[in-house]
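User: Quick sanity check before I run a bigger batch. Here is a single chain. Can you write out its predicted 3D structure?
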Amino acid sequence: MNLFAKYLLNREINRRLSGSCRQREFRNLKEVKTVLIIYNSYDSEIADECQKLLEQAGKEVSTIAYQKKLQADSRCNADFIVTDSDVRFNSSVNMANVRRLLKNSRFDLAIDMTREENLLLQYILVLTDALMKVGFCKYRRQLHDMLILAPAGETDENENSMQILEKQMIYYLSTISSSREI
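Assistant: Done. Predicted structure follows.
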């Protein structure tokens, strides 16, 4: 993605965030029925594990992954894969299937498993009208309702830290009280 497209996409994300009227609700994992997981394709093993855990708990899970370029030999099992080629020079995003999913589905929970700033996945997260958004990254805190940070001594590049973060997320979602329980 070129710099001008990044600038325009960044501006669109900020515009949508500042004008957002999204209804936020903290949900206990027991109350969550539909989940969207957003991640980079190199984290597909961890995302697949998270998806499996949620599906075993009876949740309906959809996944969107990012790859720099579409790779035929990828081990990524996401429902949708977005690439840099989905962003045009004028920052319009060509993701008809993803837009249809986001328009036709109301997610109780969106999980952002990205470890570094990714404007395309941030844009998708902003478009998502999920009741609760959980993330691991530190780049744009206003994107998430709940942010889970890496434990001391763990780095974002460490795959073990992603597994720890995934377990922490499941733990926190299982123990928090929703606004309905208060």
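The chain has a mean pLDDT of 80.

User: Great, the batch can go ahead then.
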